[in-house]
Amino acid sequence: MVKFVLAIVLASMLLSLLACAGKEQKQYQSDHYKDGKFINLEPFEKDYGFARTIDIINKFWFTEFPFTEPDRPIPTQTLTPEQIEQAPNGTLYRLGHSTVLMKLSGKLILTDPMFSERASPFQWIGPKRFHAPPISIEELPPIDFVLISHDHYDHLDESTIEQLHEKVGQFFVPLKVGRYLLDFGVPKEKVQEFDWWQEATVGPFRIAATPSNHFSGRGLFNRDETLWVSWVIIDEATRIYFSGDSGYFSGFKEIGERYGPFDVTIMENGAYNPDWAHNHMFPDGTVKGHQDLQGKRLLPVHNGTFKLAFHPWFEPMQQVSDIAKREQVSVLYPMMGQPVHAHKDKMFDPWWWLPQRSEATDGFDEAKMH
After folding, report:
1. DSSP E strands: which ranges in 84-176?
2. Helices 315-327 and 283-292 sit at what angle, rounded to 10 degrees?
3. What pLDDT does residue 197 have?
4. What domains can you pick out in the chain, each with its CATH number?
5. Both ends of the chain: CA-CA distance in Å?
């Protein structure tokens, strides 16, 4: 009975992501908005159908896949306010999942802040964190602005926004995502919505919302009613790209031509599966997208924090590292909380193997990952 109830709840969550029905919405003057829905530059089939949806639910709840979660706490590095204050411009920290803290021109920028225990509309069920954030919301210094890529629960977290917004100067979000922030208590004057290719000058920064190939929705009947974006952040010294969630698509080349070369591309790398290959990149797509963007250093994210697919939790990191080595791409793979610099290459030990050195990996052929 418990599993049945959990399956029903998960079905509701998945249908929130897979359903296509929706109510008529306010029309926007945009070439990628039609009949109340936003449209990808490279559209793909999003209606999985009942049978396929049930199959995905069955895989999540009743099928065992090896190594989808670490068998012990993963190594992280505690981050303090003093370290952030003393860090030079160009420093970046992974805080977990797709949350990255950047220090540029003396300002602090945060992407897709996610500090909750679960990536879910409910904190009693849903994907649970593998690790605590390396710094708490309470310890974070004031944040100059936050960039939100889309409205999915692992990127737009209500509890995090409620706790964080008083120390944030501005929130930059895709079209129609602002209403959620207002519901979470963020004052209207702190929220600015962007369409694809829309830019703003914010102090020393040029900020641009750029396309991604994904989808949106937080409920059963609001599929694609809000926009999804990637972000470009440029100051006098540094150019950074943040992919948000995206499948590999030709739009990376255009973004690179318009705004590149980038000192760092922060690219999605995890939660991929053949069933949703068009909206989440496989590791080879992550590296190819970085190359299309004319990136100098690749910082992969969207891994190492939540179980959101069926692949081994460490596979995205290892495969991207191997592909990047073959392609002679500089990849940055710090532990959560460990600093990297936008203008410096750096080698890291494969920390993702450390928690797996136990009986849990007896059946896994590490050689296949190389």
Report:
1. 91-96, 99-104, 107-111, 143-147, 168-174
2. 40
3. 98
4. 81-369 (3.60.15.10)
5. 43
DSSP state of 325: H
- Please report the pLDDT score of residue 2 as a whole number: 30
In contact, 333 and 300? CB cutoff 8 Å = yes
C-alpha 44/C-alpha 171 separation (Å) is: 30
Per the CB < 8 A criterion, the answer to whether 330 and 88 are in contact is no
Q: Is the pTM of this model over 0.85?
A: yes
Task: Copy the structure tokens of residue 324.
Answer: 């990047």
> Which residues of the chain carry a pLDDT beneath 50?
1-25, 357-370
- Residue pair 67/349 in contact (Cβ under 8 Å)? The answer is no
Cα separation, 342 vs 128, in Å, equals 30
For residue 315, what are its two tokens? 């596979």
Burial class (CB in 10 A: 0-12, 13-18, 19+), 370: exposed
CA max distance for the chain: 59
Residues in the chain: 370
Angstrom CA distances, 254 to 163, 212, 249, 291, stand at 37, 11, 10, 12
